[in-house]
Amino acid sequence: xxxxxxxxxxxxxxxxxxxxxxxxxxxxxxxxxxxxxxxxxxxxxxxxxxxxxxxxxxxxxxxxxxxxxxxxxxxxxxxxxxxxxxxxxxxxxxxxxxxxxxxxxxxxxxxxxxxxxxxxxxxxxxxxxxxxxxxxxxxxxxxxxxxxxxxxxxxxxxx
Length: 159
Description:
Layout: E1 44-51, H1 57-70, E2 76-81, H2 84-91, E3 99-103, H3 105-111, E4 119-124, E5 129-134, H4 138-145
Parallel strand pairs: 1-2, 2-3
Antiparallel strand pairs: 1-4, 4-5
């Protein structure tokens, strides 16, 4: 039997994760048929993924909220894997300016290719992944957002 004939059983196969340089797919935002991911991108977009069934996600929610309050001008969305009731409760944990979208595990694992929570991507204006980070602490989020800080710094004009 050659190597091509030896395929791993489905339960042993791992799906590839996105890497820096890949393009996140332009998925339809769950529960918003007319809204696509790329519609939310101007110069860049930070995309975080959380689950209400994830122990590390509780401190990550606090970190994301602290990041949002410290940097309210950053373009950040969060996909939350949960049910409708828990989603409403989750929204209350964040500043009113936070942009949260409910998502299914299927969308997160198959389309966004998140393999664990909390996770985040930094996308450029074309939807290309520029940064990837664990989204559990403010300092990780700041590293994720660092390449996009140039969109928020005043530009010096020569006189």
